[in-house]
Prior knowledge:
The chain has 530 residues and is mainly alpha-helical. The protein has 2 domains: 10-260, no CATH class; 279-524, no CATH class. It is 75% helix and 0% strand. The chain is built from 23 helices and no strands. The chain has helices at residues 10-46, 50-60, 63-69, 78-85, 87-105, 107-112, 114-119, 127-154, 158-185, 189-213, 222-228, 238-259, 284-312, 314-322, 325-332, 335-370, 373-378, 384-418, 422-433, 435-451, 459-472, 480-484, 501-524. Helix 10 packs parallel to helix 13, helix 15 packs across helix 16 and helix 16 packs parallel to helix 20 (435-451). It is globular, with a radius of gyration of 24 Å. The protein starts with 9 loop residues before the first helix and ends in a 6-residue tail after the last helix. The relative contact order is 0.09. The mean pLDDT is 87. The chain crosses the membrane at residues 25-47, 86-106, 127-156, 162-183, 195-219, 239-257, 297-318, 338-359, 392-411, 423-451, 458-476, 501-522.
Amino acid sequence: MSTAVHASGVGINLGVQWRTGWKALAAWVLGLVALVAITAASITSLYETPAKLATYADSSDTPAIRMLNGDVAGLQTLGGVMMNELGFVVGFAIPVLAISLTGRGTRREEEAGRLELLLASRMGRQAPLVATVLLALAALTALGALTALTFIVAGADTTGSLVYGLDLVLLGAVFVGITAVLAQAFGHMRSVWGVGLALALASYIVRGAGSVDGTWVVWLSPHGWYDRAAPFGDPQVTPFVVGAVATLVLFTLALRLSARRDVGGSLIAARTGPHRATPWLRTPFGLAVREHLGTTLGWALLVAILMGTYGALSQTVIDAFAGNPELAEFIAGGGEQIVESMAAMFVLLLAMLVGGYVLQSLGSLRKEETSGRLELQLSEARGRVAWTAPHLVVLALGTLIVGGIGGLALATSTAASLDDASWIGTLMGATLAYLPVMLLLAGVSVALFGWAPPMQPAVWALFAVAAVLAYMGPGLDLPEALVQWSPFGLVGNVPAEDVDVTGSLVAGVVGLALLGLGVLGFTRRDVPRR
């Protein structure tokens, strides 16, 4: 096969992708800019004097914070504070944005068969890939420009704000290139998502490991290049050169690979199954297990690695605060409470990850409908409740597995780091305390699936708002009631505080009611619902 690049018709394909995907693109960009604006407004009011900025810099320059947010330069400036506060969100949101936009225009369209129809016209073989990458880079550029403008309006240094905007584009562009290559390698979108997220997590962890001691290891990670650009310290050109070269190499590789395979195929062939399904797989429960097994194992591995890493940092946190007793007293009233507060934050992060697993798994129900497979299954002697129930049971077990593995990894690594076995029971109990929140998120998703299936992805907006309120709300000095009554705040700040029984009951009861309502709606609507 020829390795020449055939990209005629890029403009037409850009128009098609914009028309069919501008809503998702706008939601990503405007949602993240809104988060930046909220953070900037809150921080501007909190750190309006040089003395307060200096206090923030002293309190945030610890190994644990560098592990979470990266080694941010210029913490004594307003721009540096905002960059640090956004560090964790940016570390995951930008790669996810890049994977979502790039995968949507490449592997997802190819998997659905729509790309083959487009290529049947006078359009170059690589035109869709080029158009997808250009559109994703345009979205990242818009995000970077609006973020820089928001920083400038908030009072941050103009040059630093512009460099920070470019920094966001750099981080996203690298993952656009990575996703473009993965879309050629794998035949299913879920594989592209799984490997892409795994690489983003690996990059985040490598950056964190290097940032703790400030070693060269950070240069092995795109997240490390993002840190080393130092927008609000002494801005560096080298990270931008490294990132641009890496993006160009990845994009060129994706173009070459796309020319070496058939449309609809992939470099790594999907495993073919036996000609006949086993008796187990012909049962509704067996089919549901097969549907969700890969997603469950992938998320379980992700939370195990991340939580194990966080727990291993516990002693490092204590050591960091041991040399600053005034700060320890100010934050949590003493050294032991510092560890409990840090453990509560790690458990909250675990709950967010498990929530992501729940919503992604429930989203597969809608995919079964849009792909036409649901109609085929319902054409058998099987009711809709009989089809839904096995999926919900499997997802409930999967939630316990993913949460249990993550909680066990966090608990055992924390106990080993602190040489205190009592943390195992404490952290496992704190992990279980978030189960009502998982039920609430599942209830919202199933209710949307039952009554307004095209709106089911909107549950991710609720998830994003809830995560931001719980993780950043206290630091941004948002109203206490708003944080406490957000979905993740309903159970309380466990294990630093006791479980909020009232909030847990509200989350559990509302979640169960929405779950039942969603199943009822599914039994009364048309299938498929466009």
